[in-house]
Structure formats: structure tokens, C-alpha cells
Amino acid sequence: MRKVILCGYMASGKTTTARLLSAAMEIPYLDLDEVIEKETGKTVSQIFETEGEIKFRKLEHDTLRGLIDVKEDFVIALGGGTPCYANNHLLLQRDDVVSIYLKTGIDEIITRIKGQGKTRPLVAGLNDEEMHEFVAKHLFDRSWYYHHAKHNVTTDAKTPALVVNEIVSLF
User: Fold this and answer.
1) To bridge 10 with a disulfide, which of 80, 83, 89, 116 should be the other Cys (CB 3.0-4.6 Å)?
2) Alpha-carbon torsion 75, 79, 80, 83, what sign?
């Protein structure tokens, strides 16, 4: 049984890595936000707007726990904040999962965000200095939770394929 959970900050490469890892390991790929959206028929933004963050975080926790409890192989990309709420960081330590923190530096995150050509709501409208401060504070606040993952893989200056190879070598 291979249940692989990828966590990390926005633009750390969770989605890209999960898709490539899924193909390399020949197991299904899941994105937690997409699963929630499919189950509720609402986007994450709509859930936040109509039901609030507390309701979303409960849905997020219940969905993640339910997926882990299913006895199937998968690679799942968590939302950037998922480990930080509802004791989800404890799920990263379960015996039946392999959890990986995609550790990415502040400057690399900012470079990736700018290079993606799409805005991220959390940092939209921030200038370079504000974005650096915002990302640095968030990473500081969240790193304790991310470090509950069983493995850390640094992604700075690495191609997605190299990150995937490093993860595959853990098995």
C-alpha cells in the first residue's frame, strides 16, 4: 500500500510533483482541493465565501482523513494550509502514509509565483517587498506543521523530474 502525501507552501511544486510521481509510480493522483470541489459541487473560494473558513477546514480534514482511510494507493497534493489546521499534521505521521514536505526557499517561491503568469489570491496586489515579507512570515508560521512530514525534499533549483526521482528513491 502506497499512500503518498505531498505538502508544502504555494508554488513549492506539489501539484506538478504529484502528477509526475503518480505516473512514475503508476498509482492515482489526487488534489485535495479538487476532491472537495467535486464532492461539494462548489469551488474552494465559494465554500470560503458562503460557509466560511471553519467549514472549509472541517471539510478539508474530513476529506483527507477519509482518503487516507481508504485502502488504496494514491499520491495526493495537499493545499498549502492543510497541515496547519484541524491536527492534519498528525495525519502526516500515520504508519500507513509516506508524507513528504516539498521544502522551497522564499526567493524560489517568489520566482515561481511571478513566473506562473497567474495571480495567487493570497499575494495578488503585493509589491516585491510585501510579497517577500508575506511569504517569509507564512513559511515561518507554517514550517512547524510542514516538518511533521516524514521526509523533506528540497526543491530549490531542481527540475520536477529530479524532485520525483528523489522521492522515488525513498521507496
Assistant:
1) 80
2) negative
Instruction: Tell me the per-residue pLDDT of 65-84, one tens digit each, with 9 for 90 and over.
Output: 999 998 789 999 999 999 99
Query: Residues within the annotated binding site for substrate?
Result: 33, 57, 80, 142
Pick the CATH number of 3-156 from 3.40.50.720, 2.40.110.10, 3.40.50.300, 3.30.540.10: 3.40.50.300
Position 95, amino acid: D
| Mean pLDDT in residue range 90-113 | 95
120-124, 152-156, 164-168 — which is least confidently predicted? 120-124
Q: Per-residue pLDDT averaged across 3-15, rounded?
A: 96
Mean pLDDT rounded to a whole number for the chain: 93
The side-by-side arrangement of strands in the sheet containing 74-77 is: 29-31, 74-77, 3-7, 98-103, 151-154
Annotated binding site, which residues?
Answer: 11-16, 33, 57, 80, 120, 142
In the chain, domain spans: 3-156
SS3 string of 81-144?
A: CHHHCCCHHHHCCCCCCEEEEEECCHHHHHHHHHHCCCCCCCCCCCCHHHHHHHHHHHHHHHHH
> Known binding site for ATP: residues?
11-16, 120
